[in-house]
Write a structure and sequence with these properties.
The protein has a single domain, classed as Vaccinia Virus protein VP39 (Rossmann fold, 3-Layer(aba) Sandwich), CATH 3.40.50.150. It is α/β, with parallel strands linked by helices and 275 residues long. Residues 13-30 have low confidence and may be disordered. Helices cover 36% and strands 26% of the residues. The longest helix has 19 residues, at 231-249. It has an 8-stranded mixed sheet with strand order 1-9-10-7-6-3-4-5. It has a two-stranded antiparallel sheet with strand order 2-8. Strand 4, helix 4 (90-99) and strand 5 (105-106) form a beta-alpha-beta unit. Helix 6 (164-177) runs antiparallel to helix 10.
């Protein structure tokens, strides 16, 4: 457990992709929606408790999971709230509907959220903010929030120092992603630069996700910079990933403890100042 901090902590960094790459990589998730569902983890209970302490989950609160993917975050949210989801990719929405049949997921983007003004008590974003046009999206999130509402963001990041096998897998990720990531920006600074939101508060914790070799390979395949590779190059990346796991854990390993470091952010909507 790492605990809770109030800005000016910079928080996690989000990779920035070049214009054409950003569109191409974002759209790649549609082709790997099943791998995303199999390989990506959900989120730790401590992160949800942090949001609860911030007031996100009061009974009957109206909550939006924005860029909801296959519903990894939505399925963890309390049913005492009124839950909604938005996801731009049809294949992801199909996986979402199978995994979370009780929540309707609409077609839409962070830059054009398909809801009227002042609809939500909380807008939550899991593992997706780097695909947004940040200031346009934050303005749009502010538009659909009710007074007193807030935006929450969450990221699972590989806890490289916790396991030697993971360090080798992450080296493979970094080598494959190197051609698409231009630079990284501190997320808290991005939020704090938007006058619509108050200072961001962060919570960090470490935890382990139980998975398998196939789950780790699916996680790798679900990475946008891997899924867009030609088939032969994609197979090479997956083969090297399997070899890294077997080198450390053996070829007959069945269950793998995948260590993560999760950062959760909450920033309240600031009431507009009268002109």
């Amino acid at each position: 457990m790492l605990g809770r901090t109030t800005a000016p902590m910079s928080g996690p960094t989000e990779p920035e992709f070049s214009g054409p790459d950003r569109v191409r990589l974002a759209q790649s998730f549609g082709a790997t929606a099943a791998a995303y569902e199999l390989g990506r983890p959900e989120y730790p209970d401590e992160a949800l408790t942090f949001w609860d302490d911030c007031g996100a989950f009061e009974r009957d609160n109206v909550i939006l999971d924005l860029a909801a993917g296959t519903g990894k975050l939505t399925r963890l949210l309390p049913m005492i709230c009124n839950l909604h989801a938005v996801e731009p990719l049809a294949q992801m929405r199909a996986e979402f509907s199978r995994a979370v049949p009780d929540v309707e997921v609409l077609d839409g983007t962070a830059e054009q959220i398909p809801f009227t003004d002042c609809t939500f008590d909380a807008v939550l974003v899991g593992q997706a903010f780097h695909w947004f046009d940040p200031q346009v999206a934050l303005d749009e999130i502010a538009r659909v929030l009710k007074p007193g509402g807030g935006v929450g963001m969450i990221w699972n990041e590989d806890d490289v120092d916790a396991a030697p096998w993971l360090a080798d897998v992450v080296d493979e990720k970094r080598a494959t992603a190197a051609s698409t990531v231009i630079e990284e920006h501190p997320v808290v600074e991005i939020i704090d630069a938007n006058s619509g939101f108050g200072p961001a508060e962060t919570f960090e914790c470490r935890w382990e996700h139980l998975t398998s070799v196939e789950g780790v390979l699916a996680d790798m395949l679900s990475r946008s910079y891997v899924s867009v590779l030609p088939p032969d190059e994609r197979l090479t990346v997956l083969t090297r990933t399997r070899q890294a796991i077997e080198r450390h854990l053996g070829s007959d390993v069945e269950t793998i403890s995948y260590p993560y470091r999760t950062t959760t952010i909450w920033s309240p909507l600031v009431a507009a100042t009268p002109a």
